[in-house]
Amino acid sequence: MQVHTLRFVVAVLLTMAIMLFFYTSREKDYYSKSAEPAIKQILIEISSWEKPVFLHHLAPETRQTINDEEFDKLMEHYRSFGRLHSLDELNFSRTMSAFSLIGEKRINYSGDATFDSGPVSLNITLVERGGYFLVYSFALAKAEK
Questions:
Q1: Which residues are registered as beta bridge partners of 99?
Q2: Nearest to 36 by CA among 86, 90, 100
Q3: How far apart (Å, rounded) are the C-alpha atoms in residues 134 and 141?
Q4: Angle value at C-alpha 123, between 112 and 86, nearest 5 degrees
Q5: How far is 18 from 139, CA to CA, in rounded Å?
Q6: Rounded distance between C-alpha atoms, residue 45 and residue 71, angstroms
Q7: Do the Cβ atoms of 115 and 82 come closer than 8 Å?
Q8: Distance between alpha carbon 121 and the CA centroid of its chain, in Å?
Q9: Where are the alpha helices (DSSP H) in 84-145?
């Protein structure tokens, strides 16, 4: 490969990386004002672990991927965590934000929360529909001590 071609490729890749960094930084700032409070409200509501409440917050495509029996097992597992006490830290996923450039817009956060059962690690992906955030994917796990 020619040195000039290699320099050009490196310059293009570096420019794209810088542009993605600024884009995802802007997304992080924007969603810190809207998605983070929505996540807290969603977690407060769904931590009752009542099926209708949880279903109300799920995106339609997510509802279609799980049958009633699997959903009931999942709810039973999550009930063991109890109610949400606090949302300690949320980390915005720049990677998910960058991939949303080529597909549907999804916002992903991971972090720590405290439930009745103690510290919990969480991962939540949201989609924005009609001015509201819906849960696209959701996972809780007991935090390592």
A1: none
A2: 90
A3: 20
A4: 30
A5: 31
A6: 17
A7: yes
A8: 12
A9: 94-99
**Per-position pLDDT tens, the chain of length 145:** 688 888 888 888 888 888 878 777 788 877 788 889 999 999 999 999 999 999 999 999 999 998 999 999 999 999 999 999 999 889 888 776 666 666 678 889 999 999 999 999 999 999 988 888 999 999 999 877 5
Q: Locate all alpha helices (DSSP H) within 1-145, ordered by sequence.
A: 3-46, 51-57, 60-63, 68-79, 94-99
Q: What is the DSSP letter of 143?
A: P
Query: Any idea of the CA torsion for 134, 135, 136, 138, to the nearest 10 degrees?
Result: 170
Residue 103 tokens, joined: 């597909």
Q: Which residues, listed in sequence order, are joined to residue 28 by a DSSP beta bridge?
A: none
Q: Are 136 and 106 in contact (CB under 8 A)?
A: yes
